[in-house]
Specification:
The protein is of the alpha/beta class and 390 residues long. It is 40% helix and 13% strand. It has a single domain, classed as TIM Barrel. The protein contains 15 helices and 11 strands. Strands 7-8-9-10-11 form a 5-stranded parallel sheet. Strands 1-5-6 form a 3-stranded parallel sheet. Helix 6 runs parallel beside helix 7. The longest helix is centred in the middle third of the chain and has 25 residues. The two termini are 25 Å apart. The relative contact order is 0.14.
């Protein structure tokens, strides 16, 4: 099996490039002053943080946990303290080579996880400029190591016309997918299943761009599941699991809301949420479908939920062991993708404060009994097909 893994050009379907401090200040017009996302020192928390105006967005070092010596939520206090593989394309590609990873799909930190703050800027031109600056940065980052890094587009989802225009622009620039919020209603917009979004689904379908739903892209307050008495590390662990499971709601909405039915050629990816829960979710959806009379209410829906899933929805895993193997046995390898979540706190990044194995060691250890054809689908073929990669 070790030989089979080394023969597969692995596509890592969820990683994050840590945004450099000058990403926006070097690309967005200075006329907006300090409203442009920038890095400043936070005296209260004694760390560098992202700001727009006086609004703090998040700690610069929070997403750059690979190799860090403290358990989350503790993190590097300054950008200079982070591992350069989190933001340097050449050093990152060298690390990927040691793990046997050919390509990585890149997701944001600031632009997705603090979308509420960007929406709250109050200037639509500035909001659009920030999204476009990030999307252009991804292309430039990828050009430093051609073929290694795959861009998926952030969207100005608060403006549908601007969203459609940005999809066109980014597709022309080589982006291979779009990133969309799980819960647009949190931002005062129509719900995910509202027909309002049909032009966006149609545009993505026409261009062959999968829609990626990354965890924590909606109401973060829903996952304030801790109590001070629990301890900060216990609360952080509970929050992470809550994020993972929230994508079950997204999956259910895509199917029961008729989005899969109306756009049969459009692929959807549940990102950084694991796969062990998917067999239960599909069995429960099939049961509820029949038991609640959905098949009578919507006779036009010609498939069961589990069949819609198999046709066009994918899940990503990274640390799972028994649950991943069980999911593979139940749903098969055709809808499963592999990720490392590098360099986030739960990523497959060995370190003094991490339980993670190296990705190549983990795959050899956990999937030793999985046949080579299935493994190739999971590690390469499925992603290459839906993201249209050479």
């Amino acid at each position: 099996m070790s030989t089979a893994i080394t023969d597969i050009p692995i596509i890592d379907t969820d990683t994050h490039v840590v945004e450099p401090p000058d990403l926006w200040t070097s690309r967005v017009a200075s006329k907006w002053g300090d409203l442009v996302p920038h890095v400043a020192w936070d005296d209260d928390k004694q760390e560098e943080a992202w700001y727009t105006g006086r609004q703090r967005l998040g700690a610069v070092g929070a997403p750059a946990m690979a190799g860090w010596h403290e358990h989350p939520p503790f993190h590097p206090r300054r950008f200079a303290d982070t591992d350069p593989t989190a933001w340097d394309a050449t050093k990152r590609a060298a690390l990927m080579d040691t793990y046997g990873v050919q390509s990585q799909i890149l997701y944001p930190n600031v632009a997705v996880f603090d979308a509420k703050s960007i929406v709250g800027m109050g200037d639509t031109a500035l909001q659009l400029a920030c999204i476009q600056a990030y999307n252009d940065f991804l292309v430039d980052f990828g050009n430093e190591q051609p073929g290694r890094f795959i861009a998926v587009s952030g969207l100005p989802f608060w403006d549908l016309a601007a969203t459609l225009a940005e999809i066109e622009r980014c597709a022309a620039n080589g982006h291979k997918g779009i990133v969309f919020t799980q819960d647009p209603s949190y931002f005062g917009l129509p719900q995910l299943t509202d027909r309002y979004w049909d032009p966006m689904w149609a545009s993505a379908e026409e261009k062959g761009l999968p829609v990626n739903f990354h965890i924590a892209s909606g109401d973060l307050d829903l996952f304030d599941v801790g109590h001070p008495d629990n301890g900060i590390h216990a609360n952080y662990a509970a929050m992470g699991v809550s994020f993972f499971m929230a994508n079950a709601r997204t999956l259910a909405q895509l199917i029961t809301g008729g989005i899969c039915h109306r756009f049969p050629e459009l692929n959807f990816v549940s990102v950084e949420s694991g796969v062990g829960w998917i067999p239960f979710a599909l069995e429960a959806l099939d049961w509820q479908w029949r038991n609640c009379g959905v098949h009578k209410e919507h006779p036009e829906y010609d498939l069961l939920p589990s069949e819609y899933f198999r046709r066009q929805i994918y899940g990503c895993f990274w640390f799972e062991r028994d649950s991943a193997l069980s999911a593979l046995a139940q749903i098969g390898p055709d809808n499963v993708l592999y990720e490392t979540d590098f360099p986030h706190p739960t990523s497959m990044s060995p370190g003094p404060a991490s339980d993670a194995q190296r990705p190549d060691e983990y795959l050899r250890d956990v999937f030793a009994e999985v046949d080579a054809d299935s493994l190739r689908k999971i590690l390469h073929d499925n992603a290459a097909r839906i993201y249209h990669l050479d």
